[in-house]
Amino acid sequence: MADAALSHARETILTARAEPAKRPVIKSFFDPATFTVSHVVRDPGSSACAIIDSVLDYDAASGRTMNASARALINYVKFENLEVQWLLETHAHADHLSAAPLLQAELGGALAIGREIIRVQEVFGKIFNAGSEFQRDGSQFDQLFQDGDSFKIGGLDATVLHVPGHTPACLAYVIGDAIFPGDTLFMPDYGTARCDFPGGDARQLYRSIQRLMLLPDEARMLMCHDYKAPGRENYVWETTVGAQRTGNVHVHEGIGEDAFVKMRTERDATLSMPKLILPSVQVNMRAGRLPPPEDNGMHYLKIPVNGL
Known about the structure:
Layout: H1 4-18, E1 25-31, E2 36-42, E3 48-52, E4 57-59, E5 64-66, H2 68-79, E6 83-88, H3 100-107, E7 110-114, H4 117-127, E8 143-145, E9 150-153, E10 156-162, E11 171-175, E12 178-180, H5 202-212, E13 220-222, E14 238-240, H6 241-247, H7 257-268, H8 277-284
Parallel strand pairs: 3-6, 6-7, 7-8, 12-13
Antiparallel strand pairs: 1-2, 2-3, 4-5, 9-10, 10-11, 11-12, 13-14
Helix pairs in contact: 2-3, 5-7
């Protein structure tokens, strides 16, 4: 059966390659504390923009949140007189808290994530014993995208691809000639995302990646993390589909599904949990909001002992 969503994404990219007015202007912000890259994606023909994968600073030792990373995004948007139409999450991150509610309060925009966030909410709602007040229907977000959905950022065309594997809800956003694959892929010299979180699946990840590899080689691909591969001096976060297809150390051409699954499974078994996974998931499954305050007015985050 034809992959209509992939065909639409390919058409989006090819149109943008032929028409400069359809190519987004991208300003990226790197957060060294979490190795996260947030992107402001702007329509060159208007003030419209989207913000992808924002960061709320969090100090685990003190339990304090801070907004320096978010403030950098806010200041840029205001200085450039941009209009935020979308706050896009590629998935519910396990390594940083989302700043989407803060950005939305100051800048506006609709908050979006993949429809399969409901699966993440169901699993982690149980792990954190979130109670009946925690809705597991994705209603904390303004928009739940499905594979093949399309939307606009001013005059820019955008297409949504569902790319599960790292989590069940992972999305890649194709905006003009640029692809934002979330944690599905890292830079070619670093490889691919882990698949050992609840709901992760290495075989699904391989198939999601192979789907992305069918997009035009010249399409830009912008990562949401960079961990600086051994031997590389600088952090970088932009590559191309062609560079991933021919050079990704985990999944380049010639590596079959079974070999990838074996590698990914064995590698994941050696990895520690991300240091912010417990606060991050509790907040991000709520669309970046803290759990409701208790009767003393304080917000609390839970630590499920031996839960992960």
